[in-house]
């Protein structure tokens, strides 16, 4: 009669399960800088676009599967043994390394804009997986929000991979659309503040309600109505008018650039599309700077500097677009009209801030 199999003795060299998870989280964090700054692998083979996207999708599915396996294993008792934990950690690490390896095969000549989107998606997956592992060793054996939220983040990041644009023109349109939305939001916030004639109206109302029965004097409340720095003077309001027009012109510029790329952009003109996206990417942050500069207390010189920076970016974006293939007839285009509109706004801002410059 055969004797029963004897269980393998535990490996004394293995760390406890939670210690292994902590170590894995650190290893995953160490991979992030290489993804952020890593160059594409050089190869003599012709790039196979279909094979690349298939491999990237498969790698994302693998990561998602390993995230599920790890979460289930560490969300209940008993926790996995050190040997089982080692296997889980090795599989997670291998899945993450695999998707990074696929990303590194994407060449720059397919478009810097598209490569940035693939890199961003890869970074999200690696970072979210590191957060999941950290959550599991901090809150083991729990199906808590602290564990489920990072798990859902990994799952969402992996599900996003098939939605990445497949060519540089589609990537450019994706980025430009996001920029249009950001500038639209900033412009609407500026308009709303001006319509209310009080940028801090909501904040002040909350303070007045909360302090109605207290013994705190109005002069002690930051931003209370007798603080004149919380309101626009007549001069401020006059200066805001061309600033709003400039923000509106920024939105119009981005919309027209996006439309030109959509109608005339060619997938094989990757370098020109990248140039258009690079300079257009600077418009939204510049509009944000202008929007911040008009909040009280207003410094006219700061408004003038912010406006000049935005105008410089807008004119450069329009000139690059005009010189590219997306504007087949630059002499008959909308670009000169927008340049004139931008110049008109800037000239008015200069007039209203000239005293600040001379003083």
TrEMBL record:
Gene3D superfamilies: I/LWEQ domain, Talin, central domain. Residues 218-319 form the Cyclin-D1-binding protein 1-like C-terminal domain. Keywords: Cell cycle, Cytoplasm, Nucleus. One of its GO terms (cellular component) is cytoplasm. It comes from the Eukaryota. Residues 56-196 form the Cyclin-D1-binding protein 1-like N-terminal domain. It is found in: Cytoplasm; Nucleus. The keyword Cytoplasm applies. Interacts with CCND1 and GRAP2. May also interact with COPS5, RPLP0, SIRT6, SYF2 and TCF3. Belongs to the CCNDBP1 family. This is Cyclin-D1-binding protein 1. It comes from Odocoileus virginianus (White-tailed deer). The lineage of its organism: Eukaryota, Metazoa, Chordata, Craniata, Vertebrata.
């Amino acid at each position: 009669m055969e004797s029963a199999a004897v269980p393998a003795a535990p490996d004394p060299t293995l760390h406890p399960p939670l210690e292994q998870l902590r170590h894995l989280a650190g290893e995953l964090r160490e991979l992030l800088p290489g993804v952020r700054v890593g160059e594409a692998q050089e190869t003599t083979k012709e790039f196979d676009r279909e094979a690349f996207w298939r491999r990237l999708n498969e790698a994302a599915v693998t990561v998602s599967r390993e995230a599920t396996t790890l979460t289930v294993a560490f969300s209940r008792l008993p926790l996995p043994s050190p040997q089982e934990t080692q296997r889980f950690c090795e599989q997670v690490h291998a899945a993450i390394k695999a998707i990074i390896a696929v990303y590194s095969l994407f060449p720059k000549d397919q478009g810097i804009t598209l490569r940035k989107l693939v890199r961003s998606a890869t970074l999200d997956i690696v970072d979210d997986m590191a957060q999941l592992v950290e959550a599991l060793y901090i809150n083991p054996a729990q199906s808590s929000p602290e564990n489920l939220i990072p798990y859902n983040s990994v799952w969402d990041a992996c599900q996003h991979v098939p939605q990445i644009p497949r060519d540089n023109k589609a990537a450019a349109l994706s980025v430009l659309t996001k920029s249009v939305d950001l500038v639209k939001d900033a412009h609407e916030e500026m308009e709303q503040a001006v319509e209310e004639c009080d940028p801090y109206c909501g904040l002040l109302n909350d303070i007045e309600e909360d302090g109605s029965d207290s013994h705190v004097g109005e002069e002690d409340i930051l931003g209370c109505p007798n603080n004149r720095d919380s309101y626009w003077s007549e001069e401020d309001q006059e200066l805001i008018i061309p600033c709003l027009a400039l923000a509106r012109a920024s939105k119009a510029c981005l919309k027209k650039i996006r439309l030109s790329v959509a109608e005339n952009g060619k997938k094989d003109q990757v370098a020109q599309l990248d140039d258009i996206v690079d300079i257009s990417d600077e418009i939204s942050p510049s509009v944000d700077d202008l929007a911040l500069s008009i909040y009280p207390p207003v410094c006219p010189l700061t408004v003038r500097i912010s406006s000049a920076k935005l105008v410089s970016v807008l004119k450069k974006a329009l000139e690059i677009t005009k010189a590219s293939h997306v504007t087949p007839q630059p002499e008959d285009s909308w670009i000169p009209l927008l340049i004139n509109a931008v110049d008109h706004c800037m000239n008015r801002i200069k007039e209203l801030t000239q005293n600040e410059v001379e003083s």
